[in-house]
UniProtKB/TrEMBL annotation:
The record marks 115 as: Important for catalytic activity. One of its GO terms (biological process) is fatty acid metabolic process. The lineage of its organism: Bacteria, Bacillati, Actinomycetota, Actinomycetes, Micrococcales. Residues 2-154 form the 3-hydroxyacyl-CoA dehydrogenase NAD binding domain. Pathway: Lipid metabolism; butanoate metabolism. This is 3-hydroxybutyryl-CoA dehydrogenase. One of its GO terms (molecular function) is oxidoreductase activity, acting on the CH-OH group of donors, NAD or NADP as acceptor. Residues 249-269 are annotated as: Disordered. It comes from the Bacteria. Residues 161-228 form the 3-hydroxyacyl-CoA dehydrogenase C-terminal domain. It comes from Arthrobacter woluwensis. InterPro entries: 3-OHacyl-CoA_DH, 3-OHacyl-CoA_DH_NAD-bd, 3HC_DH_C, 6-PGluconate_DH-like_C_sf, 6PGD_dom2, NAD(P)-bd_dom_sf.
Length: 279
């Protein structure tokens, strides 16, 4: 989405092949996005030659590494050292508040959560302060993102999972529990969601799309932050089951068929996405 207005996006990953695969995905997907929208201009997406190259002249830096603070915190320290002083910093974390990973960022007023879902199919995004974010930074994102056909919603106070993912966490929790307890199969849960709510995919198919290793990290984070959840319903009750049954086969948790979906210059000219292919 960020390359759909003629700007430049640089992708950085420790594995160059992963960054190049992301570039190829955008090349294959972007023309369809522009055609469906009926406006916009294909920008340039490149695999950067290292982090310093990716960050040069960037106005927006988006981090999307695995859901582990021990990875995110030192990375943000490195980004802070290399990035332009006026760049906006944003984490794409699915559940962690940006406040929890900003300790090595000198100017915390430019840092926030900016969580995307599954664009171009799902174009909502969460925006949330780290507690010190400059109001002008948040307002800039809320104003500019719709130009890229991304629709931002601001979480008005700190919330693990922001808005949608906080509600989604409860759905995942119960879906995992009914399968872990032997009440239903994953494909049964998915089929009922498709039939009753006319959803194109069910919870297990959605978790497949995110990546099961990432889902595991997220659910364990929720379990740590929510020890008050009822016994037998918290993420911890299915952690062992998930490790044995999901981590061993990270490609799919559901056995249902997932429908095939394609899973201006100015200040918008250059962005850097720090991305990993894990999930």
């Amino acid at each position: 989405m960020m390359a759909s207005r003629g700007g430049t996006v640089r992708i950085s990953d420790p594995q160059q092949a992963v960054a190049e695969a992301a570039v190829q995905y955008v090349a294959e997907t972007l023309p369809g996005v522009l055609s469906e929208r009926g406006s916009g201009e294909a920008g340039t997406v490149v695999a950067a030659n290292g982090l310093a190259d990716a960050l040069e002249d960037a106005w927006l830096v988006i981090e999307a590494v695995p859901e582990r603070l021990e990875i995110k915190i030192p990375l943000w320290g490195e980004v802070d050292r290399l990035a332009p002083d006026d760049a906006i910093f944003a984490t794409n974390s699915s559940s962690y508040a940006s406040r929890l990973m900003d300790e090595r960022i000198r100017d915390k007023s430019r840092f926030c959560n900016l969580h995307f879902y599954m664009p171009p199919a799902s174009n909502a995004a969460d925006v949330m302060s780290d507690g010190e974010t400059d109001r002008a930074v948040l307002d800039t994102l809320l104003r500019v993102l719709p130009e890229f056909d991304v629709h931002p919603f601001e979480a008005r106070k700190e919330s693990t999972g922001f808005i949608f993912n906080r509600v989604w966490a409860a759905i995942k929790r119960e879906s995992l529990a009914v399968v872990a307890e032997g009440v239903a199969r994953p494909e049964d849960v998915d089929a009922m969601f498709r039939l009753n709510w006319h959803m194109p995919v069910g919870p297990f198919q959605m978790m497949d799309g995110v990546g099961l290793d990432v889902v595991l990290d997220i659910e364990e984070h929720y379990a740590q932050e929510n020890p008050h959840l009822a016994e037998g319903r918290g993420p911890s009750c299915v952690s062992t089951w998930r490790r044995a049954n999901w981590a061993a086969r990270p490609a799919r948790a559901s056995t249902a068929t997932t429908p095939e979906t394609p899973p201006d210059g100015g200040p918008h000219a250059r962005m850097c996405l720090i991305w990993t292919g894990t999930g």
